[in-house]
Amino acid sequence: MAPSASPAAVTIPVSEAFLSVQGEGRRTGVASYFIRVSGCNLRCGWCDTPYASWAPEGAPAAVEGLVHAARASGAPDAVITGGEPMLFDTVEPLSRALADAGLRVTIETAGTIAREPCAPGGDRGLACGLMSISPKLSNSTPSPGDGRDPGGAWRSRHEQRRINLGALRDLIGWYPRRQLKFVVTSASDLDEIEALLGRLPPVPPEEVILMPEGVTPPAPGSTAWVVEACLRRGWRYGHRLHIDLFGNRRGT
Ligand code: SF4
Questions:
Q1: Residue 184: in which H helix or E strand, if any?
Q2: Residue nearest atom 2 in ligand 1 by C-alpha distance
Q3: Ligand 1: which residues within 6 Å by Cβ?
Q4: Where does 61-180 have alpha helices with state H?
């Protein structure tokens, strides 16, 4: 399929699409139409959308229908998330069609695959108002006893793939409107984040977001170390608004 093919003929695998408020990052609270692409090249142990990674569900959906639904939702933002949207060539025409329809597009990726931005008036590449990059730390690697990965094949594949410095450098360089979101589980993650940032092009500290792992609201005081880390470095604390508003439910 040529990237410039008509949206009517272009499809992308989707596990769910819905209207909600953005729960994470710089666009938190903005009404957004979410398109969750199904399929991922990683297998995070704590993945909160296993129906788009460990056991991908859904079917190919036409870009034209997705854009129509996004526009009809009335939301100003569209969020292409996953799974890993960058796996699929058709994320490019999808993003362009959403932007052409007047939506501000966020792309949520783990940053293991880079795709170039669309030149003005171009018919290739991504239209992206916010590149939301979430590099996966070692805390994401599935444990040896994970029953979803009896032989450990995914554990080793995940570990090999989770950081792609070339892709991260390209994404940071190509997309001036971006954020780096890190899911953190313990203070030892901080050294890992600093080591990674030291190997990447410099980003303003407020573009670095620490998000405590979990699918329930954190207990008071339990994230004091994250707050402290953000205060010391100028990083941003990443709340999960959708968990507060809706709990850990699909379609929110
Ligand atoms: S990259 Fe995202 S979708 Fe893929 S396994 Fe990790 S958390 Fe799940």
A1: strand 178-184
A2: 83
A3: 40, 42-44, 47, 49, 52-53, 82-84, 110
A4: 63-73, 91-100, 153-161, 165-174
CA dist., res. 229 & res. 165, Å (int)? 24
Give, for ligand 1, the residue of 34, 49, 154 to mutate: max count of ligand atoms closer than 8 Å to Cβ.
Answer: 49
Q: pLDDT of 169-193, one tens digit each?
A: 999 999 999 999 999 999 999 999 9
CA 98 to ligand 1 center in whole angstroms? 23
Average pLDDT over every residue of 35-45 = 98
Q: Is residue 51 a contact partner of residue 37, using CB atoms and an 8 Å limit?
A: no
Distance CA 123, CA 106 (A): 19
Structure tokens at 207: 């573009």
Atom of ligand 1 nearest to the CA of 40: 4
Per residue in 126-176, pLDDT (tens digit) is 999 999 999 999 999 999 999 999 999 999 999 999 999 999 999 999 999
Nearest to 47 by CA among 134, 132, 133: 134
- Is residue 61's pLDDT more than 80? yes
